[in-house]
Design a protein that fits this description.
The protein has helices at 2-15, 18-62, 81-87, 91-94, 108-121, 163-242, 247-275, 278-282, 285-300, 318-339, 378-388, 411-415; strands at residues 66-70, 76-79, 126-129, 139-149, 152-161, 303-309, 343-351, 354-361, 392-397, 403-409. It is of the alpha+beta class. It has a five-stranded antiparallel β-sheet with strand order 2-1-5-4-3. Strand 9 (392-397) and strand 10 (403-409) form a beta hairpin. Helix 6 packs antiparallel against helix 7 (247-275), helix 9 packs parallel to helix 10 (318-339) and helix 10 (318-339) packs antiparallel against helix 11 (378-388). The structure holds adenosine-5'-triphosphate and magnesium ion. Adenosine-5'-triphosphate is lined by residues 334-335, 337-339, 361, 363-366, 372, 374, 376-379, 403.
Length: 416
């Protein structure tokens, strides 16, 4: 049997004819060509892949915004040039470094929270951090979580420089805050102006009323005193003309006429003095004030002192004299009305050509800083008169400390 089998295999080899060999060779050749074509395709595909990878690398590297990929521990697995520039460190230095080490400590909690959120939910989180490197900038991190292979999660993070946006936002907020502040200030100013306008209006009303009052008083005086006296005078003269009187009666009537005329003379003087003290014109400011003080002190039974340290030739314009006189008059009036003082001093000083008039009492005093809500006009009219003649007026007073009124007129205001 083995001999038979040997024979059969030889037979087979004999049957593998030249034709078969040829066919086999041909098939081999076809395969080889197919493999070569496939190989060429593979090489081409590989080249395209390499090109695509290079293009991607270029895009990644030269992208205008920063990209960083973080591994599961938050270490920097890769970072492009813009990203490294934003962190202010060389790229090689940054690789494998925990990202947290590149930002300020104040931003750690927010950054950790952001990492945890992105890992657990894989969502798009946003956080703003400041890199440690100077100059300080603000970077907005926006991320996407990807799985590269089992267990290798990466967080792809885009880094956008939001410093300018932040600055503009901060400037806008600051401008808004300033505007709101200014609006509030303006509101206060407007309220204060309205209040002072209302005060001026009320003052003007009171001034007009006071003026009317003054006119009525003068008219009453004219009517009650001069009018009556003139009527009496006229009647007496008429009677003297018409009646046949004895010499003795005529002398009596003439005497009455004389007394009436003298009385009228005195009253006219008084009225004129009320309007403008004649002494101001005759003897000047200091003498007129001295007379006023002396007469007032006698009437009030108060001790009065008068000091002048001003040149005799001190002349102040008529207008100013009159205002200064009225200021002193009102100051004395207030002492009599409110102070219960024992002593009053009036001083007129001229230093460096500035004129100062001081009225001082040792009475009960008052709180200067408290607004006077009463209907009193004295202090206001003194203030107005001082301002009208280019000067200023100040009160120094406190309860139980007496009162001193200072009126100061600068030299240049006196000259004009
Ligand atoms: N020398 C003073 N001593 C004490 N209190 C004074 C003195 N001068 C002014 N005062 C206080 O200041 C207030 C205001 O004075 P002001 O002259 O403006 O009003 P008035 O004297 O009350 O009224 P008016 O002057 O219109 O007659 C007075 O009511 C008084 O309380
Ligand atoms: Mg007064």
């Amino acid at each position: 049997m083995p001999v038979k089998r040997k024979r059969s295999s030889r037979q087979k080899r004999k049957d593998f004819s030249a034709y078969d060999l040829h066919k086999l060779l041909h098939e081999l050749q076809v395969h080889s060509e197919e493999i070569t074509a496939q190989n060429e395709q593979l090489i081409k595909a590989q080249r395209e892949l390499e090109l695509a990878r290079d293009r991607y690398a270029d895009l990644y590297d030269f992208a205008p915004i920063g990209y960083v990929s973080l591994d599961v521990r938050g270490n920097i697995a890769d970072i492009n040039r813009a990203g490294a520039a934003l962190l202010g460190r060389p790229r090689q230095y940054l690789l494998d470094l925990p990202f947290a080490r590149t930002i300020t400590a104040a931003d750690y909690p927010a950054f950790r929270k952001y990492l945890a959120l992105n890992r657990s939910e894989g969502g798009v989180g946003v956080v703003e951090v400041q890199p440690r490197a100077e100059p300080r900038r603000t970077i907005k991190l926006m991320s996407r979580s990807v799985v590269l292979s089992a267990g290798d999660n990466r967080l792809l993070v885009a880094m956008i420089d939001s410093t300018d946006a932040r600055r503009i936002e901060a400037e806008r907020e600051e401008a808004l805050r300033r505007e709101q502040e200014r609006a509030a200030e303006l509101g206060v100013e407007i309220a204060a102006r309205r209040e002072s306008e209302a005060r001026v209006k009320a003052l003007l009303n009171r001034l007009v009323t006071a003026q009317e009052e003054e006119r009525r008083r003068i008219a009453r005086n004219l009517h009650d005193h001069l009018g009556q006296q003139l009527t009496a005078l006229r009647l007496t003269i008429d009677a003297l003309k018409q009646e046949r009187l004895s010499k003795e009666d005529s002398a009596k009537r003439l005497d009455l006429i004389d007394r009436l005329a003298s009385q009228i003379d005195r009253d006219v003087d008084l009225l004129a003095w009320d309007l403008r003290p004649a002494e101001l014109d005759d003897a000047g400011l200091t003498a007129a004030i001295e007379t006023l003080l002396r007469q007032w002190a006698v009437a009030q039974n108060i001790t009065a002192d008068f000091h002048v340290s001003a040149p005799d030739a001190l002349r102040v314009s008529r207008d100013r004299e009159s205002h200064l006189y009225r200021i002193v008059q009102e100051a004395l009036h207030n002492v009599g009305k409110h102070a219960s003082a024992r002593k009053v001093s009036v001083m007129i000083e001229c230093r460096d050509d500035d004129l100062t008039v001081i009225v001082e009492d040792d009475g009960r005093g008052f709180r200067v800083d408290e607004p006077h809500t009463g209907s009193g006009m004295g202090l206001i009219s003194m203030q107005e008169r001082a301002a009208l003649i280019g000067g200023r007026i100040d009160w120094e007073s406190a309860p139980g400390q007496g009162t001193t009124v200072f009126v100061r007129i600068p030299a240049k205001a006196l000259e004009s």
